[in-house]
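User:
Can I borrow your eye for a moment on a structure tokenisation matter? Would you put together a sequence-and-structure record for a protein of your own picking? Please set it down just below, with no commentary around it:
AI:
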Amino acid sequence: MLSVLRFAKLSVPLAALSVLLLAGCPCNKRRTYTAPTPGALVAALAGRGGQVKTMRGRAKVDQWTRKGRIKVRVYILTTASGKLRFEAVSPFDTALVTLTSDGKQFASIDHKNNVFYSGAAKPCNIARVLGLALEPKDVGLALSGGAPVIPHQKKSLSWDKCKGTEVLRVEDTTKKLVQHIWLQREKSGAWRVLRSTVRDSKGKVLVEMLFEKFRKVGGRMLPRVIKFRQPKTKSDVIIRYHKQKINLPIPDHAFRLTAPPGIPERILTCP
């Protein structure tokens, strides 16, 4: 017992010393390339749609809502132009929800409650199904590893010495929104989005996206894990891809959905 006590007495200062040493490690990562301009990074983000025109994926989704946790398997189709198809099934392969959007109109079948929904493809309607209050084109872009950039009047760039990434800051002076996007330069010269946050004038996070565990898909580095967070709606979503394929032809009818015979239809409107 005495030896244990002696070890405990010695271990405390050693542990404290290790913490101090770690805390004192300087963040000194430097660029190994010529610094880009803010405009060049905004253009790179806008041009991502030309590189990932379509994506087909299979994933598991964890979603936390006010009603609790939902865990499903999903099949995803997206296009750079903002078209979506999202099919959720239970662990027992039971169809739960099917959602489609052609970028203007959305439709959804709630298989569990046997109801067909339709309406304008607006964030409030998309949120009713996916739990994410985003434009369809923004959802599609994010699902393939891109960061939707808010309309902005100001932009600037800084360097994160700890993470070794560029931090693009854009500001919408009209709506008083500020977005930060962390980007990492790949060897090919392409830019990898690691994180994006949008805050209001009080500094509160409106939406946050994290992109992790990248792998090469069709010649592009895509995230295998994507995390969405919207504190206002208390909705957190984690998408873990098992399979991804990009730039495959997808017929337009895949993004249209009609009410099956005998299923009541409800038209959803946004305030």
About this structure: Residues 38-261 form a domain with the outer membrane lipoprotein receptor (LolB), chain A fold (CATH 2.50.20.10). The chain has one domain: 38-261. Helices lie at 2-23, 38-46, 123-130, 136-143. The first strand starts at residue 54 and ends at 65.
